Amino acid sequence: MRVVFLHPDLGIGGAERLVVDAAVAVRSCHQVVVYTTHHHPHHCFPETRDGTLKVVCVGDWLPRSVLGKGAALCAYLRMLLLGLYVVLRVPFDVAIVDQVSVCVPLLRAFCRGKVLFYCHYPDLLLTTRKTFLKKIYRGVLDAIEEWSTSCAHKVLVNSAFTAGVFKQTFKSIKDPPAVLYPSLNTENFLKCPERNMDDLGISMAENGNLFVSVNRFERKKNLGLALHALRQFLDTQDSDSEISTPSPKDSTPTTPSPKGSTHLVIAGGYDPQNRENIEHYEELVRLSSSLNLDEHVTFLKSPDEVTKVNLLRRATCLIYTPDAEHFGIVPIESMFCGTPVIGVNSGGPTETVVHGVTGYLCPNTPEGFAAAMREVVPRSREMGEAGKRRVRERFSFERFSQDLTDIISELAAT
């Protein structure tokens, strides 16, 4: 079958990772092309630039915003143009649209193929409405979002948490969405070459504690929590030493590590065209300095896959700070690499992380995270192995691929 994916901005976030993995999964059985409104060769996943996937960019000449305003409206217009391009030029059997649903009615009305919408999270819940004009502006877009979502032949969501939010938010849509958990292309992780910390630009003691945060530089990702938690973690240690640690996971040191060997790497997706990315990165750098953490913290902008995978392999644990995250693919990646996860006890991580077994689910506070960091250090290897088993059993790429291809086949046959 001919399967097309329509995605607004093919960068390096979790939603983009899902689309890329889904396209790779479907490609094993069907013809696949990914259509997007933005794709930059230096800010994308390797599968979209090395020939693994065919990517067609349409409408990038349209603005993302006007004087920093109207980003949602511009995204709608860009996706409408993308949908129109597919209607006029691209025959398909199944179209998979995600994030922005505005083009779904267009595809359904003028194409013979079936349309599947993958809802990461209702967009109307991600914005504020502080002024009267903003309420009117968002009210119109919210109505369009709900109506256009209802036009899909089938709707998928990324977690049971999102399914519950979807049902409460889109009350006019009676058919409940199906849950399809994202996965990861494990082959890419397995073939990723080894790198040492010096090669990655990180200097620390060989037996030190390495905490890693992987998220886009966006305020909703709550990255400041990792910095405050690190400060609390350091402050609770003795003046001369830290607690004994089995990190790195491939060795078992018997002596405690000095404070200076504890390090936090905040590796985030960073788009130089995104104003929030620029501003929030600078905010975090200032916060690190104000907490006297500069010698303990490294910031990495848009690390490549090799860097990310090696950080996760080497880490004592992943510090995952978003609150009420819709799903969160990074905890899955971390557990597959044998690294436990500390996350907020809400949203998608409650469905992926087993508290006390593959990591810890904590209150959204520095005290809660710092306490979990102290608990995880001596159990890093044990919890990491449990995480590996959980990913293989519940979130394998093979299972994801089979489920998605079955959904596509059933949809096309109806």
What is the name of the CATH class of the largest domain? Answer: Alpha Beta
Please, what is the CATH homologous superfamily of the largest domain? Glycogen Phosphorylase B
Question: What is the CATH topology of the largest domain?
Answer: Rossmann fold
Which strand order do you get reading across the main beta sheet? 3-2-1-4-5-6-7
How many individual domains? 2
Beta-strand content? 5-15%
Bulk shape: globular
Rounded to an integer in angstroms, the radius of gyration calculated over CA atoms is 22 Å
Number of strands: 13
Largest sheet: 7 strands, parallel
Low-confidence blocks of residues: 239-247, 251-259
Class inferred from helices and paired strands: alpha/beta
How do the SSEs run, as a string of H and E? Answer: EHEEHEHEHEHEHEHEHEHEHEHEHHH
Enumerate how many helices there are, as a single number: 14
Average of per-residue pLDDT values: 90
CATH architecture of the largest domain: 3-Layer(aba) Sandwich
Give the CA-CA distance, first to last residue: 14 Å
| Helicity range | 40-55%
Family: Belongs to the glycosyltransferase group 1 family.
Main location: endoplasmic reticulum
Pathway: Protein modification; protein glycosylation
Pfam families: Glyco_transf_4 (PF13439), Glycos_transf_1 (PF00534)
